[in-house]
Write a structure and sequence with these properties.
Layout: E1 14-22, H1 26-36, H2 41-49, H3 56-72, E2 81-99, E3 105-121, H4 127-135
Antiparallel strand pairs: 1-3, 2-3
Helix pairs in contact: 2-3
């Protein structure tokens, strides 16, 4: 009687985490998201930990959630995880007014954002073996 199960859109070696309605504009959030794209998970966490931007802590929490999803739900190796994709999207816009002189008003827009982080397990690359072949 229930709905059919929704098929999984990600590959077997991927996991994701989504945070909705973050109180920051998508433009500012995308600057922080750009810092961690295509980096290893541990390096991305280190980058966000020492970032001076306020929103970096929320991005870090979402990244840690994606890593936990990969480990607990999909049995992926945490040491092999890479930030595959970071998507930033527009959410709602709160509109307020600011009283101006001579009885006028001005609109103030407060933007919200959505954030989606996808982590993937990279293939194990035998770096030592490939460097020995080049030396020989």
């Amino acid at each position: 009687m229930s709905k059919p199960k929704h098929p999984r859109t990600l590959a077997e070696t991927e996991a994701q985490a989504v945070t909705r309605n973050i109180r920051v504009s998508p433009r500012k959030l995308n600057l922080v998201a750009g810092l961690i794209r295509n980096k290893s998970a541990s390096q991305a966490i280190a980058t966000l930990t020492f970032s001076k931007r306020r929103i970096a802590q929320d991005v870090k929490k979402t990244l840690e959630s994606a890593i936990a999803n990969a480990e607990n739900n999909h049995q992926l190796d945490v040491d092999q995880l890479v930030v595959k994709a970071v998507e930033v999207g527009k959410s709602i816009v709160m509109r307020r007014f600011h009283a101006r002189g001579r009885g006028r008003s001005a609109r103030v827009e407060k933007f919200f954002s959505h954030l989606k982080i996808v982590v993937a397990e990279r293939a194990v690359e035998p770096e030592a073996a490939s460097s020995e072949q080049k030396a020989a």
